[in-house]
Amino acid sequence: MNFHILTLFPEMVLAGLHTSIIGRAVADGLLTITAVNIRDYALNKHKSVDDAPYGGGAGMLMQAEPVFLACRDVQKGIRANKRKSTRVIYLSPQGKTFHQAMAEELALESDLIFLCGHYEGIDERVLEEVVTDYVSIGDYVLTGGELPAMVMIDSISRLIPGVLHNKASAEFETFQDNLLEYPHYTRPEVWRDKKVPEILLSGHHANIEKWRLAQSIARTKENRPDLYEKYLQGN
Ligand code: SAM
Fold first, then answer.
1. Cα–Cα distance for residue pair 52/96, rounded to 1 Å
2. How far is it, in rounded angstroms, from Cα 115 to Cα 13?
3. Rounded to two decimals, what is the model's pTM?
4. What's the rounded Cα separation, in Å, for the pair 221 and 218?
5. For the chain, where are the alpha helices, taking DSSP H only?
6. CA–CA separation, 107 and 21 (whole Å)
7. Paired strand residues for 89
8. φ/ψ (deg, to 5) at 7
């Protein structure tokens, strides 16, 4: 999987994504993550890429042309490597809310381009021209699309074979079958008078699985009634 991030702050996304499990996957050659600085495509000598909005209003907007040139350059590079041109995801609080099934679908792509807005956003005309998907990471407004891009790349990457060394890790976890995951415990067996549930020490795998499923169902019903309804419909 090849991730391409169009941003005004490449150092921010690269620092975050070259750490821990995702950083190791990059080092192992399972992923590439490149950040393209939109400012490099500015048309003026001051390298500014923002301007005031027509019609007035607070804040500045990123201009269309630098975003357009940066995006087309990345797409050209992808085609030159004999891969077909790709989806362009604009991170936006106005987009569809990101969820696990969307991560699974995106993990099947060979390349993904993420466009990070800043300030009040980006001139609408270039969005109409290049964007294929509008995605939000939740109903709140951030200062830029960099953190949302990092969130998406992290969750997509861990679905790529080999990124999680333990294959089972991604197999049953929260959101699988619309259930939240069961609780986990590790050593010591007793911590501040709190004991690990007896069943987990029994070595009886079938009973452990049954207990875990019951825990998953109970906590989904309690914490996420919306998800619990979906679980009931699917069963
Ligand atoms: N004026 C825009 C609006 O009301 O829709 C918000 C702009 S926001 C301050 C600046 C940038 O942050 C956006 O262009 C987008 O890239 C990113 N952003 C902010 N919140 C986001 C969210 N919840 N999900 C994804 N991207 C977000």
1. 27
2. 12
3. 0.95
4. 5
5. 10-17, 20-27, 64-80, 100-106, 124-130, 146-157, 205-223, 225-233
6. 16
7. 114, 133
8. -155, 160
**Which residue has 């956003």 as its token pair?**
121
Going by the DSSP 8-state scheme, the letter that residue 53 receives in this structure is: P
- C-alpha separations of 170 from 155, 167, 190 in Å: 11, 6, 28
DSSP 224: -
Q: What is the C-alpha R_g of the chain? A: 22
For ligand 1, whether the C-beta of 106 sits within 6 Å is: no
- pLDDT-derived band at 23 (thresholds 50, 70, 90) equals very high
| Ligand 1 pocket, residue 88 CB under 6 Å | no
Amino acid at 141: V
pLDDT tens readout for residues 182-224? 999 999 999 999 999 999 999 999 999 999 999 999 999 999 9
**Residue position matching structure tokens 């089972």:** 168
Cα 231 to chain centroid distance, Å, stands at: 24
Q: How far is the CA of 148 from the centre of ligand 1 (A)?
A: 9
Atom of ligand 1 at shortest range from CA of 115 = 16
Residue 60 is encoded by which pair of tokens?
A: 């500045």
Distances (CA, A) of 156 to 31, 108, 165, 173: 11, 9, 15, 14
pLDDT for residue 83: 83
Locus of tokens 């891969």: 83
Give percent of the chain above pLDDT 90: 91
Ligand 1: centre distance to CA 68 (Å): 18
Task: Check pocket membership of 35 for ligand 1, CB cut-off 6 A.
Answer: no
Q: What share of the chain is helix, strand, coil (3-state, %, to 5)?
A: 45, 20, 40
